[in-house]
Design a protein that fits this description.
Blueprint: H1 2-8, H2 15-20, H3 25-40, H4 50-55, H5 57-76, H6 79-88
Helix pairs in contact: 3-5
């Protein structure tokens, strides 16, 4: 998750990216529930206990929120952006590409 919060958005949430036009308010609305749940997630036993995290029902909710966000994004992104999302967002867990 560090790659997302530290590298992708630099802890500034999305305001800077929305203001610059990199992300639209509509795109952010599509991912906001997932983003907030991910930001607020606390691991049951520690960040390095991957097995417990992957079995955590709270994590499953986050995965489903991510799947829902991805489905919503497919409705608003253009073909090139959808291709990037589809090809870059490969997750070997319980993730479903629409």
């Amino acid at each position: 998750m560090c790659g997302y919060f530290d590298d992708a958005i630099n802890h500034d949430e999305y305001a800077k990216h929305i203001d610059s036009g990199m992300v639209s308010a509509t795109e952010y609305a599509a991912i906001q529930s997932w983003h907030n749940a991910l930001r607020d997630y606390k691991t049951p036993t520690g960040d390095d206990d991957h097995k417990t995290i992957l079995e955590d029902p709270k994590w499953h909710v986050i995965v489903e929120l991510g799947n829902s966000a991805r489905r919503q994004l497919t409705l608003i992104l253009n073909d090139e952006e959808r291709s990037i999302l589809k090809n870059a967002m490969i997750y070997p867990g319980p993730s479903i590409w629409p």
